[in-house]
Amino acid sequence: MMQKKVTDTSLESYVLMQPHLAPLEKLMLKVYRRNYPLALSNYDLQEELGWEINSITARRNALAKKGLIEQVGLRWRKKTRRNVQVWRLKLRR
Predict the structure, then answer these.
(1) Considering the entire predicted model, what is its pTM?
(2) Among 78, 34, 87, which Cα is nearest to 59's?
(3) Which fold, 16-89?
(4) The pLDDT of residue 13 is above 70
(5) What are the distances in angstroms from CA 57 to CA 12, 28, 68, 86?
(6) Nearest 5°: phi and psi at 56?
(7) C-alpha pair distances (Å), 3 with each of 12, 16, 19, 44, 91
(8) What does residue 66 show for φ and ψ, rounded to 5 degrees?
(9) What is the per-residue pLDDT across 29-83, written as a single tens digit (0 to 9) for each?
(10) How far apart (Å, rounded) are the C-alpha atoms in residues 58 and 6?
(11) Alpha carbons 83 and 86: distance in angstroms, whole number
(12) Cβ atoms within 10 Å, residue 65
């Protein structure tokens, strides 16, 4: 299956068009946009944003409920020796 190439400007437009986001949700969404198409775990977000993990999970859950990000799989995390969920920006089709 061939993936469509998404330009940086279309991703930026997508993010900016999202109304009713709390300031911290907007910051997190920018991290997802900046890293697209990579999928990020809570630990990736924690490292980039410097927030406590409970803040990460709360904001990530809010973005998922709003349909802005989606879980795309699992990734092995050496430090915890466990699989962790990874999430990516969900683009409208």
Answers:
(1) 0.78
(2) 87
(3) Arc Repressor Mutant, subunit A (1.10.10)
(4) no
(5) 23, 11, 15, 12
(6) -60, -50
(7) 19, 23, 27, 24, 12
(8) -85, 0
(9) 999 999 999 999 999 999 999 999 999 999 999 999 999 999 999 999 999 999 9
(10) 28
(11) 9
(12) 9
Judge whether residue 20 has pLDDT over 90: no
Write out the two tokens for 13. Answer: 């437009």
Please check whether residue 76 is in contact with residue 83, taking contact to mean a CB–CB distance below 8 angstroms.
Answer: yes
Strands (E), 18-91: 69-77, 82-89
Give the three-state DSSP class for 69.
Answer: strand
How many Cβ atoms from other residues are within 10 Å of residue 68's Cβ? 21
Residue 8: what pLDDT? 58
Locus of tokens 């466990």:
82
Contact 46, 31 (CB under 8 A): no
